[in-house]
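Request: Give me one sample?
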Amino acid sequence: FGDEGAANHTRLCGGYGEAGVELFVYGQVAFNDQAPAPKKYPARQTLEASQAIARLHGLDGQHTVFAQQNPNAIDAGVFHNDVIAVGNGNTLFYHDMAFLEEERVLADIRSRLTGAELEAVRVSSEEVPIEDAVASYLFNSQLLNTPDGMMLAVPGECREVASVSRYLDALVQSGGPITSVEVFDVKQSMRNGGGPACLRLRVVLSDEELKAMHRGVLLTDDLYERLTAWVKAHYRDRLSQADLADPMLLQEVRKALDELTGILGLGSIYDFQL
């Protein structure tokens, strides 16, 4: 039941407030030794784990698609689906090596998607070899809606890999749903194994829901400055084994958390604050 689910799940829809299609991508079938599976690297997501997530969340089977990731892509270093595909709204941006049964997967999504037609933006291996896709984290990006179309937020490494940079220039001129590309320096995240996709978690709120939220956690210029000062004051740049045995570290962490809840106006939420 290998599960690293968030990196292997995409929701496609006509509108954020409408019913959509839940796309679960798995690396192998755990209970079938004869099913296709990667040979070099282990598959981190199993079909059985994906099915359990869908079942426990009460998802409608008519709006759920299970797709196997191409084992050859996993062996090329694509451990999670978010390194080979990204979706937003009715758009699926993916590499031709993303899925084991590409046409079947696309057909399943199209048959279940309501309120909009699927926009499948396919990147071929001739345009971007799988090795370049992995090295640049092209698909470990964010697709964001803008008034002029969708914007693809990519890591700076995408401009350092020639094939990817050329592809991005052609993409915005193609007349497709992705109309702009913005490059961001996320080297610290990349060096720890994550690009912009690690920021993909989004909860869309109505105006009424937004007004009901606690105001202290909404980012403003002032809050950004206060949080930056808090990080500089409390974040260590290294931690040793001896530090972990020092009782003062606990006091240090509690002091930092106490200040943070004060900055955000959350009140006493930790046991040590009671």
